[in-house]
Design goal:
Blueprint (H helix, E strand, L loop, with lengths): L12 H14 L3 H14 L4 H13 L3 H14 L4 H14 L2 H14 L4 H17 L14 H7 L3 H12 L19 H8 L3 H23 L8 H32 L11
């Protein structure tokens, strides 16, 4: 190309700023990524990828209001954008709006059933709603009298002391940890997707929990007065079961938390 030629190399500043922001976001440098995304949107205030990436960065920084505003802007331009719907659902889930998140995951699943994150999101929202709903026997009256409500929430000292005395009488019951169930009821394919490489350890702990539970039931049904040495075996099995529950609960909660921070599984390594 000659020096006097009018031809000039093409340069798109929006794409350049966006590419830099993508690189910074992959390095988890979210604040720096936001700076370049602001420059990109200043050049083109309708650049959908920049809005989506900025919303994702805000979500990672737990700035859910800003993340929600950006993804809603995208949905104004493209109401059926599956990536925007997935991001919107994850933001609702992070905020604790499980019903809104569930509806959005359902919309995305109908729109794009091939994206399995929508199915995972539906299941985790249903689990969160089920865990959040507890049977409350206290009902507020029409005159808004909160006396019974607060008495149930904060029992009087005398009642609490009497309850403590009743608990300490006789043989102490087993601790809740001894009776704790296995921590999850998710389908295996979803659990494998959430846990990635930790799924093999999780299944091993689940088998260990089942084996120790069966052994405890057999030992408790036996006559321990005839064979006192079985007490040591029973206690050891209880400790093994508690250990399995602790480790399994940790893996399950860690996988769920990691998925909240990385809803697109971009940094998740799964077993092939």
């Amino acid at each position: 190309m000659s020096e006097d030629s009018s031809e000039r190399p093409a340069f798109n500043s929006v794409d350049a700023y966006y590419s830099v922001a993508r690189t910074l976001q992959s390095r988890k440098e979210y604040q720096r990524a936001l700076f370049y995304l602001a420059l990109a949107l200043k050049q083109n205030d309708k650049h959908i990828p920049s809005y989506l990436l900025r919303s994702l960065c805000h979500m990672y920084l737990c700035e859910t209001d800003k993340a929600l505003a950006d993804v809603q802007t995208v949905l104004q331009y493209e109401p059926k954008n599956p990536h925007a719907l997935l991001l919107l659902a994850e933001i609702y889930y992070l905020r604790g709006d499980f019903e809104e998140a569930l509806q959005t995951f359902h919309r995305g699943r109908i729109l794009r059933p091939t994206i399995e994150q929508f199915l995972v999101g539906v299941h985790k929202c249903e689990t969160a709603i089920q865990n959040s709903c507890t049977d409350c026997k206290i009902r507020l009256t029409a005159d808004l009298d909160l006396t019974n409500f607060y008495e149930g929430a904060f029992p009087r000292k005398k009642a609490a002391r009497n309850a403590k005395i009743l608990i300490t009488r006789g043989k102490p019951p087993e601790t809740p940890e001894d009776l704790a169930p296995w921590p999850t009821t998710r389908p295996k394919d979803i659990q494998r997707r959430l846990m990635g490489q930790g799924y093999n350890e999780f299944t091993y702990l689940e088998k260990m929990f089942g084996d120790e539970t069966n052994r405890i039931q057999q030992l408790q049904s036996a006559n321990q007065d005839v064979m006192p040495e079985m007490n040591a075996t029973l206690n050891r099995s209880k400790e093994n079961r508690k250990t399995a529950v602790r480790c399994g609960t940790y893996l399950d909660r860690h996988a769920d938390l990691f998925h909240k921070l990385d809803p697109g599984f971009r940094h998740t390594k799964t077993d092939s």
